[in-house]
Amino acid sequence: MRNTLYIPLQPWPTLGVVAVLALLPLAAATLGQPFYVVFATRVLIYALIATSLNLLIGYGGMVSFGHAAFVGAGAYTVAMLMPAGVASAWLLWPAALLAGAGFAFLVGAVSLRTRGVYFIMITLAFAQMAYYLVLSLRVLGSDDGLTLGNRPSLGLVDLNRDTTFYYAALAVLLAALAGMRALLNAPLGRALHGIRDNETRMEAIGFATYRLKLLVFVIAGAAAGLGGGLLVSLNGLVGPNLLNWTQSGVLMIMVILGGAGRLLGGALGAVLLLVVEEAIAEHTIHWPLVIGVVLLAVVLFAPQGLSGLMRRRA
Amino acid sequence: MTMLSVRGLHKHFGGVLAVDDVGLELAEGELHAVIGPNGAGKTTLVHLLSGALKPDAGVIVLDGRDVTRLAMHRRVRLGLARSYQITSVFPHFTVLENLALAVQGATGHDDRDRARAELGAVGLGARADDLAGALAHGERRRLELGLALSTGAPLLLLDEPMAGMGPEETARIVDLLSALKRKRTILLVEHDMDAVFRLADRITTLVDGRVIASGTPDEIRRHPEVRRAYLGEDGPR
Is residue B151 within 8 angstroms of chain A, CB to CB? Predict the structure, then answer.
């Protein structure tokens, strides 16, 4: 029978992309541009975070405007635990994941009782509350943020080497994408599609839609928290701006650029936005204007984003 | 055995009393029709019974269990499902996927075989792999019905299943409901009086949110108040 919602695995393109990503540090070293390894790692982490937001916006129809708060929850958890003597990434990163999940549970439990524009506004309000809380707490460094001396340790591999960290981030992103594909192809994924299509009818055929949406909200928050934990581990510092509403906006733009409701939409959007930013920012301080024009073009001419365009070609 | 028992149901919207002290008894296997003019509160009654709305007062007992305050999805799992007057399907799912979703929702299991059986019951076998959004009106109405059927609920609340249908499609639905009779308990809200008098075991008439008469089709046909308020003096005899 036809299975319209099934996301197939395309083995050769997938292998190709993974191979390119795996060889990227080698290429950067050969070209004598090791700086790009750190940049590429940042792109991978943002790809993870944007992917988690895409799960909410693109698949769940939950337009969350407060996703930066979950990133911040994960980042500050790592930044608090490391000075307290926790050095292992095996503890720090799961802690960041749990912090994102826990905060998402609290925000989701309240926000998901509303719909539409109210949902957008209430998630924004929660995120701004978190932002001002961080800003006002001395233990969290107020507006200076927190600085870490070292990167976490990951057993035998040394995360202080940029290339190693890159591979760790790549592994996390690939695992997250595989997990998201599995989730969307499972009965839970079909239920999520159904909620986006017709939520009232979903209740009328027996689905506990509120609980399902909350579950997905928590999963997305967990991935965002993990992303925040990776980000602070990479940079060695975190500031309150990571939680500001503009960050939530940037994540949303990534999802729209890449293609909401496409498996790779969040990841492609993160790559596009950060690469464009990196390429133009050296030449002009007005680079957000360029992003704005690109966004406008995507919304007008390619409403399914970059991944929609690529699919049409294929 | 009583499948559904409703007592003293009230619901008002602002100053309008949409449902006013309504009581109902549905025996297991009964097909009970609810008729009445537009604005009589029939759809509000379906909303109250299904859990889409909460009543201001009254008790709803399903199969011996008080469900008055339960959420809609809990009632479905306890065996009460509804269909909608305005077609409400999943346009981006295929016809079979629509039904499979209803099976999954009500039972928690992804059982395609059961969905396929209901597909045949509503006569959409040839359309299994087409998107629900691409169906013609009559087919969408049958899919609407199929969603309620696929929950497997023993009690169905059907809100105007023949709305907007031509005579041919209406006859199909009448046949379908005749086949369902005795297998499921059905509360049927419908304006097509030929269909109602042909199918119903008992009929309740609502006017301005109140029950003005309840009885067998013969009793309702002869009821002077029903004739005056709804059927008209030259209505079915």
Answer: yes
pTM of the model: 0.92
Q: Give which of B90, B98, B130, B150 to mutate to test A binding, by max A Cβ within 10 Å.
A: B90
Quote the minimal CA–CA distance from B82 to chain A in Å.
7
CB-based contact A245:A131 (threshold 8 Å): yes
- Length of chain B equals 237
Name the residue in chain A with its Cα closest to that of B113: A1
Distance CA B180, CA B74 (A): 24
Helix H segments across chain B? 42-50, 72-77, 95-107, 112-121, 137-150, 167-180, 193-199, 217-222, 224-226
Residues 6+ apart with CB under 8 A from B197: B203, B217, B221, B236
As given in the structure block, the two tokens for residue B19 are 């449902």
| Predicted confidence (pLDDT) per residue in B75-118, tens digit | 999 999 999 999 999 999 999 999 999 999 999 888 888 999 99
Q: What would the mean pLDDT of B202-215 be, rounded to a whole number?
A: 94
Tell me which H or E stretch contains B35: strand B31-35
Question: Mapped to the 3 state alphabet, what secondary structure does B133-181 carry?
Answer: HHCCHHHHHHHHHHHHHHCCCCEEEEECCCCCCCHHHHHHHHHHHHHHE
Of A156-160, B80-84, B165-169, the one with minimum mean pLDDT is A156-160
